[in-house]
Amino acid sequence: MIDNPRSPRVRAVAKLAKRKGRAETGLFLAEGPQAVGEALAYRPDGVVALYAVAEALALPLARAAVDAGIEVTEVTAPVLEAMCDTVTPQGVLAVCRQPATTLDELLAGRPALVAILDEVRDPGNAGTVIRAADAAGAAGVILTGPSVDAFNPKVVRSTTGSIFHVPVVQGVELEPALDAVRAAGLRVLAADVTGEELPVVQGLLADPTAWLFGNEAHGLSDAHLAMADRAIRVPIYGKAESLNLATAASVCLYASAFAHRG
Question: Count of H helices and E strands in the chain?
């Protein structure tokens, strides 16, 4: 058992909440039973260690970790609090390896649907779009430019486990990413308020599509918008001033999912 919140091991785990710590180690945190359960179900080979308070050791996921040969360590509540990024930890934490997916690997199978996030900074938005892309059956998500780190703890929590289902590529610039998706046979549709209404272009969506979504505050820059094949907007029929990024992205991704499934 670990009962000292200031121990070197606890500090090493806590550093993974910061981008520098994740970059130096290639590791990240999955907090809570939902995320840890998905990690064990879909990426057990990527789980390095599991830490849990006494009550959580009785959960089936703790047994699953032991059966998979993963080190499981009991910790006190103050230790888990020191390790976690959340204010109120949920009893269990996994340290995981970051999946290393390249753009070429993602596009090798000539996917029908991909989401591209350009300069998206909000962890909650990025995580929710990853979750929506997973639900809509997208082949993967690409984060370009100075977007938030996909393995930021807040992003991981917002995906509710989808980070372990969907390949995520980051650290690429937008222009070469768009060149690559076009070479793989996808049309690039930018979600933007200046575009054509989504229902008008419904017929396009049966084709392989890469949806391009911009920054939540100012959208896509003019230069980046011009790189898309077409600009599309989600119409607002009521009195709402606008849709947030994650909601608009969910609508666009599902419109493509419906079209692909006839």
Answer: 11, 10
Domains and CATH numbers, the chain: 8-97 (3.30.1330.30), 103-260 (3.40.1280.10)
Cα 31 from Cα 64, distance rounded (Å): 16
pTM, two decimals, is: 0.95
In order along its 262 residues, the chain shows pLDDT tens digits of 999 999 999 999 999 999 999 999 999 999 999 999 999 999 999 999 999 999 999 999 999 999 999 999 999 999 999 999 988 999 999 999 999 899 999 999 999 999 999 999 999 999 999 999 999 999 999 999 999 999 999 999 999 999 999 999 999 999 999 999 999 999 999 999 999 999 888 889 999 999 999 998 889 999 999 999 999 999 999 999 999 999 999 999 999 999 999 8
